[in-house]
Amino acid sequence: MKVIIGKDYAEISKLAAEKMIGEWDSYNILGFATGSTPEGLYQELIQANKDGKISFKDKTTVNLDEYIGLPENHKESYRFFMNTKLFDHVDVDKKNTNVPHAKDEFDVAACKNYDELVNKLGGADIQILGIGENGHIAFNEPNEELSANTNIVKLTDSTIKANSRFFNNEDEVPRYAITMGMGTILKAKEIILLASGVKKADAIKKLVEDDKVTTKNPSTFLKLHPNVTIYITQDIADAINL
């Protein structure tokens, strides 16, 4: 596990993008995340595509998760996010972009089908991740047990509250989501995790400072992966004395 410190959000986004751009030809399957954390990275990739440094034409993408109950064109769906923040601005064939989708919280077949897709692709060549303040990865929240494979989760009250800033109120936030499990995520050949802001310091500290793996901090499962690079801002590094 390698930790790289940038002075601020813009710098870690640029550093992560430079790494990806430099190794672009070795990536056929791109694993993407949603949320504010990877937006800066996506902007860098869009610019590199416009500048002719990289192309998405022959790439296939897989995303981590999606709300259940929102249509794909809903402005808060993760498919809509990926289209507007990345796919609409690069030369990707959208038929080769994959975001999990479940029709309701009982759609177990959707989970199985998505895992089969990821397995058929051989896992992502590179997977982008963010991290929650409590160490959650995708919608894998701290719990007594975690599902290894793609599964349907009931969102915690804290996640609903955190995500309500994107909706008019908490009542509009979906209560369920479909998400890759940590086992599916760890099938990626390489992982990049970005973290910005001192609120993420405690989760990062538990991830990088000891060898414990715990479902109470799902990010710690990344310790089991042989090729993880973590990009953190200077305020996080200062908070945990890195």
Give a verbal description of the structure.
The protein has helices at 9-22, 39-50, 78-85, 108-121, 157-163, 182-185, 201-208, 234-239; strands spanning 2-6, 29-32, 60-63, 65-67, 97-98, 126-129, 151-154, 176-179, 191-195, 228-233. The strands form 2 sheets. The chain has a 7-stranded parallel β-sheet with strand order 1-10-9-6-2-3-5. A 3-stranded antiparallel β-sheet has the order 4-8-7. The relative contact order is 0.19. It is globular, with a radius of gyration of 17 Å. It has 242 residues and is α/β, with parallel strands linked by helices. It starts with a strand and ends with a helix.
Radius of gyration: 17 Å
Number of strands: 10
Mean pLDDT: 96
Instruction: Report on the biggest sheet.
Output: 7 strands, parallel
Low-confidence stretches: none
Q: What is the terminal-to-terminal distance?
A: 14 Å
What percentage of the residues does DSSP assign to strands (E)? 15-25%
The order of strands across the largest sheet is: 1-10-9-6-2-3-5
Secondary structure class reads alpha/beta
Task: Determine the number of helices (DSSP H or I, runs of at least 4 residues).
Answer: 8
Shape: globular
Helix content: 25-40%
Offer a quick outline of the entry.
The protein has 242 residues and is α/β, with parallel strands linked by helices.
Task: Tell me the layout of helices and strands.
Blueprint: E1 2-6, H1 9-22, E2 29-32, H2 39-50, E3 60-63, E4 65-67, H3 78-85, E5 97-98, H4 108-121, E6 126-129, E7 151-154, H5 157-163, E8 176-179, H6 182-185, E9 191-195, H7 201-208, E10 228-233, H8 234-239
Parallel strand pairs: 1-10, 2-3, 2-6, 3-5, 6-9, 9-10
Antiparallel strand pairs: 4-8, 7-8
Helix pairs in contact: 1-2
